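BUG-217 | component: ligand-complex export | severity: low

The export step for iron/sulfur cluster jobs runs without errors, but we want the raw record kept on the ticket for reference. Input record follows.
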Amino acid sequence: MAEDKKKQLDDSNKQMLECSKCVLRGTCKQVVPGEGSAEAEIMFIGEGPGQKEDELGRPFVGAAGKFLDEMLETINLKREDVYIANVVKCRPPNNRDPLPEEAEACWTWLEKQIEIINPKLVVTLGRHSMERFLPNQKISQIHGKAMRRNIPGLGSRVFYALYHPAAALYNGSMRTVLIQDFKKIPKVLEAVKKSESEKKDEVISLNNNQDNQETLF
Ligand code: SF4
């Protein structure tokens, strides 16, 4: 089973390397699929590769990546324990924000990764990643809150929005908030597991909710 998941993920990521569905492939050096465990309970999703990531073909390897590694250590995790990916897999030129049509074009790859890994918790890093899963929200209002949302094709899932490590790196107050929110991840994960075990086979339907999402913790 674990082997199956790893193979499926490797196969999908290999196919991704051939993708040229949007203009970003024309300006980046290489596709950056993501890395980590196919068995991860937590998946971190950033916005897109930066210069260093584009050069090395790995996600979160610059200063923001080092900061992410340090925060993972504070909750006794290494990057091999989680999965780290981005909304767009190719670097936007000059690190500009990914355009909606680029995020849309790349969605099939991210959707496939989430489907295969099937994490218990998806942690969004930054505004663009949050927007993909929790639209019409303000990150300043929902950071550090876990929300369950029904995503077409992926079912009911729990998302936890955080500031992007790159944005928080040199901003003292945002950095403090991010570190505090990050430390809550193990508790959020435990709460997700507990709620799932208590609900057992019950189908969670949030369709009565006006915006199809509920705040959990
Ligand atoms: S950003 Fe995504 S959709 Fe666009 S070319 Fe790269 S892999 Fe393909």
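Assignee comment: Attached the raw record above. The CA atoms of residues 44 and 123 lie 5 Å apart.
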